[in-house]
Amino acid sequence: MWRMLCLTLAMLLSTWTGAIAGPIRIKDLVEFDGVRGNDLVGYGLVVGLNGTGDGIRNSPFTEEIMSNMLERLGINISGEQFRPKNVAAVFVTAELPPFSRSGSRIDVSVSATGDAKSLLGGTLIMTPLTAADGQIYAVAQGTLIAGGVSANADAASVVSGVPTAGVIPSGARVERELDFDFTSLNTLRLALRDPDFTTAGRIETAINAAFGRPVALMLDSGTVEFNIAATRAGSPAHAIGRIENLTVEPERKARVVVDQRSGTIVMGDNVRISRVAVSQGNLTLRIDETPIAVQPNPFSPGETVVLPRSNAEITEEPGIGLAEVDGGTSLAEVVAGLNALGVAPRDMIDILKSIKAAGALHAEFVVN
Question: Does the predicted TM-score (pTM) go above 0.85?
Answer without folding.
Answer: no
